[in-house]
Amino acid sequence: MSATIIDGKAFAADVRGRVAEQVGRLNDAHGITPGLAVVLVGEDPASQVYVRNKGKQTVETGMNSYEHKLPAETGEAELLALIERLNADPEVHGILVQLPLPDHMDSDLVINAIDPAKDVDGFHISNVGLLATGQKAMVPCTPLGCLMMLRAHHGNLSGLNAVVVGRSNIVGKPMAQLLLRDSCTVTIAHSRTRDLAEVCRGADILVAAVGRPEMIPGDWVKPGATVIDVGINRIERDGKRKLVGDVEFVGANRIAGAITPVPGGVGPMTIACLLANTLTACCRANGLPEPQGLTA
Ligand SMILES: NC(=O)C1=CN([C@@H]2O[C@H](COP(=O)(O)OP(=O)(O)OC[C@H]3O[C@@H](n4cnc5c(N)ncnc54)[C@H](OP(=O)(O)O)[C@@H]3O)[C@@H](O)[C@H]2O)C=CC1
Ligand SMILES: Nc1nc(=O)c2c([nH]1)NC[C@@H]1CN(c3ccc(C(=O)N[C@@H](CCC(=O)O)C(=O)O)cc3)C=[N+]21
């Protein structure tokens, strides 16, 4: 028997629909339009695709999109000055600085210059600390999207064994925090983990966020487990360019209970959650009630 495919595209369309509806009501009742500013430094082709998709979907949900494209050689001071302007701009409720930044910039410094209330990526140290201590934070979009799909699929996650492979600040660590908050027993694995296969086989929920094409084979998956594949890897196979995850899909699909595909899994939900976070930030900035069903 094969696994249930968790359709991230459909989930994302649902989230976007709910965002659009609440944006419409916000506009009708208060004359407010949420605004998202996306800053891209340099010309990484993959980043350009994401930024274009984000801008398009922002406008489709009735929000304002402000794109700032800076050349790769932009100085750090110039980027910080732009962030200052966006922090002060009342029309801008969310700010996203696309990562990675060019090598000559200090990413931590840049991210921590963003007003935490506008930090829709949830990467600012204030938001990281708020999430870790169980307080109201802006929650990183990719882990938030994964959590929404897991909750929808499982209902209650309490007591389940969750293994997160990857410990980055943008995916692995916040994912682990969210699973812990939902009372999973959480293991974070990484490149130094001993016997990763055995660790993975203990997982009721397996989240792969590594960045290595198809490194997790089917026989690392516990029968019936839910597999969330965050990996986005561009490879060439049989002369064709292809997008694959960190999980070997065909093998894992035979053993898992449910699995997210790549593409069409976590990726679309990341963008939908970015829109949801922008709406949340706008509501908070205006002292209005939180949007329903769109926060963690
Ligand atoms: N779908 C989406 O919306 C998004 C997808 N992504 C994708 O998710 C993947 C991960 O991204 P990100 O977290 O930024 O990546 P990073 O490169 O920042 O982190 C990768 C993590 O994987 C671990 N790792 C590397 N090799 C191994 C190994 N052989 N065994 C076990 N662990 C290993 C690293 O361990 P160590 O710390 O020890 O080095 C590290 O913690 C990428 O494919 C990225 O493109 C990212 C963001 C959003
Ligand atoms: N500050 C910042 N915040 C981010 O959230 C951020 C970032 N920087 N840098 C890069 C990563 C990566 N990321 C993705 C978003 C959407 C898809 C996505 O929509 N993927 C589609 C396929 C798109 C394609 O074909 O390339 C899918 O999986 O179906 C993927 C990856 C956000 N990131």
TrEMBL record:
One of its GO terms (biological process) is tetrahydrofolate interconversion. Residues 6-121 form the Tetrahydrofolate dehydrogenase/cyclohydrolase catalytic domain. PROSITE patterns: THF_DHG_CYH_1, THF_DHG_CYH_2. GO terms for molecular function: methenyltetrahydrofolate cyclohydrolase activity; methylenetetrahydrofolate dehydrogenase (NADP+) activity. Its EC number is 1.5.1.5, 3.5.4.9. Pathway: One-carbon metabolism; tetrahydrofolate interconversion. Residues 140-284 form the Tetrahydrofolate dehydrogenase/cyclohydrolase NAD(P)-binding domain. Gene3D superfamilies: Leucine Dehydrogenase, chain A, domain 1, NAD(P)-binding Rossmann-like Domain. SUPFAM superfamilies: Aminoacid dehydrogenase-like, N-terminal domain (SSF53223), NAD(P)-binding Rossmann-fold domains (SSF51735). Keywords: Amino-acid biosynthesis, Histidine biosynthesis, Hydrolase, Methionine biosynthesis, Multifunctional enzyme, NADP, One-carbon metabolism, Oxidoreductase, Purine biosynthesis. It holds the Pfam family THF_DHG_CYH. NADP(+) binds at residues 166-168, 232. It catalyses: (6R)-5,10-methenyltetrahydrofolate + H2O = (6R)-10-formyltetrahydrofolate + H(+); (6R)-5,10-methylene-5,6,7,8-tetrahydrofolate + NADP(+) = (6R)-5,10-methenyltetrahydrofolate + NADPH. GO terms for cellular component: cytosol. Belongs to the tetrahydrofolate dehydrogenase/cyclohydrolase family. Catalyzes the oxidation of 5,10-methylenetetrahydrofolate to 5,10-methenyltetrahydrofolate and then the hydrolysis of 5,10-methenyltetrahydrofolate to 10-formyltetrahydrofolate. Homodimer. This is Bifunctional protein FolD.
